[in-house]
C-alpha cells in the first residue's frame, strides 16, 4: 500500500518509516533525506537548498516535485511511505496526478499528532547514525555509550543544522501555514487517519500497524 506520514517536525515520521521499511518491504520516500543527499553531492541545486533548509523554510515545489517524480514512476512493490511529502497543496495535487498517471493509488494518510511542547525536546535531542540513518534521542534513545551505533556499529553520530530552537520555530510556522491545510484536504477525500504521536515509539509502531491492517 501507499501511505503518507503527515505531521510536524519531530512527530516521529522518520522513526516509524524505518520500521515499515523493515517489516513490510515498503520504500521510504523522504524528501528531507533526498534534499540532504543533493546537498552532500555538492550539486548547484544542493547548494541552493542548503541555506533554505538550515533556516527552516520550505524548498520550492518545483525542486521537490522534480525529486520525487522519477521515484514514483519507478513504482515500489511493497508500496511507498511518503515521509515529509507532500507539504503544500500544490505538492498534494502533483502527487495525486503522478499516482494517477502511473496507475497507483493512495491508501491512507496518517496524521501523527504531537503537541508543540514535546517537539522542541524531540528535535533538540535528536541525532542520527551517519552510516545507516538510525534515529537516536539524547534522553529517550541515547547513542550507545561505547560510541558505536546499535544498528550497524558505525561510529559517526550526526546532528542536523536545522535542529535548533530558532530554525524549529520557522519549521513549525511553515508547517501550520502551508502543510496543515493538507489535513482538511485529505479529510475531505476520506483518506485521513489520526494517530497519537505522543505515545511511546513502540506504542506508535503498534497503532500504526493496526491502522495498516495487522
Ligand atoms: P524533513 O527532513 O522532512 O524534516 P521534518 O519534517 O522537520 O521532520 P523531522 O525529520 O524533523 O521529524 P520526524 O517526524 O521524521 O521525526 P523523527 O522520527 O526523526 O525536512 C527538513 C527540511 O527539508 C524542511 O524544513 C524543508 O526545508 C525541506 N523539505 C523537506 N521536504 C520538503 C517538501 N516536501 N517541500 C518543501 N521542502 C521540504 O523523530 C524526532 C526525534 O524524536 C528523534 O530523536 C526520535 O528518536 C524521537 N522520537 C520519535 N518518536 C518518538 C516517540 N514516540 N516518543 C519519544 N521520542 C520519539
Ligand atoms: Zn548505524
From TrEMBL:
Pfam families: ADK. Signal peptide: none annotated. Transmembrane segments: none annotated. One of its GO terms (biological process) is AMP salvage. Its EC number is 2.7.4.3. It catalyses: AMP + ATP = 2 ADP. Keywords: ATP-binding, Cytoplasm, Kinase, Metal-binding, Nucleotide biosynthesis, Nucleotide-binding, Transferase, Zinc. One of its GO terms (molecular function) is ATP binding. It is found in: Cytoplasm. AMP binds at residues 31, 36, 57-59, 84-87, 91, 160, 171. It comes from the Bacteria. ATP binds at residues 10-15, 126, 135-136, 199. CDD domains: ADK (cd01428). Catalyzes the reversible transfer of the terminal phosphate group between ATP and AMP. Plays an important role in cellular energy homeostasis and in adenine nucleotide metabolism. This is Adenylate kinase. It comes from Phaeobacter porticola.
Amino acid at each position: 500500500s501507499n501511505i503518507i506520514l503527515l505531521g510536524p517536525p519531530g512527530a516521529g515520521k522518520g522513526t516509524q518509516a524505518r520500521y515499515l521499511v523493515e517489516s513490510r518491504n515498503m520504500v521510504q520516500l523522504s524528501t528531507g533525506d533526498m534534499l540532504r543527499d543533493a546537498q552532500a553531492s555538492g550539486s548547484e541545486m544542493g547548494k541552493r537548498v542548503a541555506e533554505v533548509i538550515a533556516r527552516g523554510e520550505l524548498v520550492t515545489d518545483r525542486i521537490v516535485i522534480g525529486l520525487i517524480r522519477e521515484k514514483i514512476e519507478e513504482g515500489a512493490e511493497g508500496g511507498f511511505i511518503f515521509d515529509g511529502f507532500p507539504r503544500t497543496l500544490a505538492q498534494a495535487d502533483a502527487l495525486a496526478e503522478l499516482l494517477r498517471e502511473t496507475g497507483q493509488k493512495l491508501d491512507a494518510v496518517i496524521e501523527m499528532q504531537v503537541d508543540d511542547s514535546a517537539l522542541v525536546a524531540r528535535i533538540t535531542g535528536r541525532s542520527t547514525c551517519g552510516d545507516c540513518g538510525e534515529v537516536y534521542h539524547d534522553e529517550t534513545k541515547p547513542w550507545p555509550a561505547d560510541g558505536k551505533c546499535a544498528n550497524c556499529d558505525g561510529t559517526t553520530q550526526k546532528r542536523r543544522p536545522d535542529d535548533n530552537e530558532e530554525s524549529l520555530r520557522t519549521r513549525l510556522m511553515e508547517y501550520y501555514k502551508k502543510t496543515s491545510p493538507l489535513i482538511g484536504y485529505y479529510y475531505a477525500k476520506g483518506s485521513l487517519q489520526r494517530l497519537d504521536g505522543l505515545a511511546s515509539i513502540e506504542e506508535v509502531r503498534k497503532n500504526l500497524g493496526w491502522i495498516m491492517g495487522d
